[in-house]
Design goal:
The complex is a heterodimer of chains A (393) and B (350).
Chain A: H1 8-29, H2 34-44, H3 54-59, H4 61-77, H5 81-86, H6 88-111, H7 116-126, H8 131-141, H9 146-177, H10 181-213, H11 217-237, H12 242-256, H13 268-285, H14 291-315, H15 317-320, H16 324-333, H17 339-351, H18 353-384
Chain B: H1 12-20, E1 27-30, E2 37-40, H2 47-68, H3 92-101, H4 103-107, E3 112-118, H5 122-132, H6 136-143, E4 148-149, E5 152-153, H7 160-165, E6 170-171, H8 179-191, E7 202-203, E8 205-208, E9 213-220, H9 225-245, H10 258-268, E10 273-276, E11 281-284, H11 285-295, H12 297-303, H13 306-318, H14 321-332, H15 335-347
Parallel strand pairs in B: 6-7
Antiparallel strand pairs in B: 1-2, 3-9, 4-5, 8-9, 10-11
Classes of the chains: A mainly alpha (393), B alpha+beta (350).
Amino acid sequence: MPFAAEALPWYALLLLVAAIAGELVLRWLHLPRLFGWIATGVLMGPQVGGVLTERMLFEMRGVLDVAIGVVLFQLGQRVDLGWLRRNPSLLATSVLESSLAFAAMFAVLLLIGVPSLLAALAAAIGIATGPAVVLSLTRELRAQGQVTERMLLLTSLNCVYAFVVVNILLAWLHQEYSNDWASIFGHPLYLIFGSLLLALVFALATLVLLTLLGRRAEAQFIAVVALVVTAVYTASALKLSIVLVLLGYGVIARAFDTRRRFASLSFGSIGQILLVLLFAITAATLDLDLVPGGAAAGAVLVAARYAGKTVGVFALAPASGLSMRKASLVSLTLMPMSGVALILVHDMSALFPGLGSTLASVVVSAIVMLELLGPAAAYFALVRSGETDQTGS
Amino acid sequence: MNTRDCDLTRAASDMLALIEKKPHPGEIKPEITESMIEISTGVHARHDTLLAELLEIRAIVVAASDRLNVRVAGGGAHPFQHWSDRRIFDKPRFKHVSQLYGYLAKQFTVFGQHIHVGCADGDDALYLLHAFSRYLPQFIALSASSPFYQGVDTAFDSSRLNAVFAFPLSGRAPFALKWSEFTAYVERMSVSGIVESMKDFYWDVRPKPEFGTIEVRVCDTPLTVERAAALAAYAQAICRWLLVERPDRISEDNYLAYTYNRFQACRFGLEGEVIDPIAGVRRTIAEDVAATLQAVSVHARELDCEAPLQLLGRIARDGNDARWMREAFADGGSLADLVWQQGERFRGAG
């Protein structure tokens, strides 16, 4: 992944335009900045404005991986595994909303004639809620409370489920191409356990480093940024999963942080810059050409996914101590779907060039629709929950 | 607090919704911001029944907090929360107070323990109110648990009371020994439009005619419910002693050293110095506690609360919660870690 120096001015331009657009959206429309970032990406992308070409976007992929890595790490840090133990209904909620969303999407895709294995793959990709959207909204709105916390927890868990299911299905696909059992079973196992092991190594290394550095926020910050970037590159060099490694890294680091050394750590303005790039580049990468063909199927897919997640969240709301009103808000926050899904689609098309395109048109259509609808729904839900700064006095 | 960085979070309404579903002793109510709840017990004549009720309420609160992934702790103030982050609980009276006092209302995200002591009539209540004021520094020092405020060590053992003093109607009640004189005063204040009701006075000790009690309001919320119950038992024992033996003659002179003593207690805790201008005594608050414990010992035996008073005697010798917090901070190195440990102590685990 070359970080081409000649691309730097384009990053700067993209950042500048996105930053201005973000502020305009905030000031005039009173909406979160990320809508401005997304709009900037779409408008500057190869298919609309053409300021950014396909080649540039390809070169930016390295930064995209780092940005997603940082997002997932931060998300992981916000997840408290102890909470699942203290409130087991939450784990059940997460499994249920993911399975129902999967089942609903799978059924819809089968009905419109997608081959079953492809349908399952697309449905598996749809399990994941967009981690960048939920993290960015949480930060910008300074949201805190039950809706926010559950959104973050359920998002991290469904990203993991999506990843695991997709890889199991990919192994299944392998079987249709070859009869090499070692690769059918070995590869997913390597991905899952290798990723978790790498996450563990990085988490422990980070905690040791933080102990050595002491509680100086700046030193901690630089060290952790460096380690997170290293983790992204190591994961991709070892062909492990960025999703699992970075999410796991965040979760494990927090779980083992018994003296709360991480407490003061935040990615601050670097995190913000990466988020801007992530949203803008992802939006620019969206393959709008695929939308007309897949629009109908995409829309049904979006509706089925939302229905599945909503039923899952509602079913166990009383058991997990959530009011029905807040349950409806939590289900709305789970709508976004972006970065991770795109990576999964991308990885899949790389592995199986033939099949990627059919699948991609439906899934990409759904992603394009949810690119704006998802953040809007989550934003609406967070504001209505009264957990943001805007609803306070 | 949230479980991530131990800053205050918004959870009061969710917690209360969860708690209301089941019957429980006492009352658990919202307070002015979404980060605080108010717990009150029923009326108790004995320390052991009070403690039992408090333990039961604590179990309910802890269970609800576990389900919502938040933590609850005692302490007079959150060590590093920022007042501008606080959200006012959605209830008309709180919104009104917030508009009237502006930043003071949010800065008032401090946590106190109020002790009510029942009195036979209004005159007894006023005698008790003024006689008790001599012992307030002890209660401030014994309960002090707000050494850190807005992220810094304030050098005070109880920084919380400084937030209270900023309010225009804080301080001490006017000197009146007859209930009729006192109601005349409240009437004058209300006719002139200064206050609407007794609720607007933020005095250190104030009468509460609806309950037939005087309300001692100077204590920081201790880190443990055991300590809260012990302080209530101590107040009960002192009041019994004052009412039965009437050891002190009450006059306006009682208040000569009042603000000086109170400052000493807030700033230096148990090492602070109190001056009793009438008796001509000058000693540390720790010594004063020991002397008072001695004086009330007969009544403590009557009330069967010797054990909790012994606990307070040990605190006077070995140090209060503020001291423990400074040591825990020095040991753990971060305020977030300190708050985590405060949460553990509240649960009874630390």
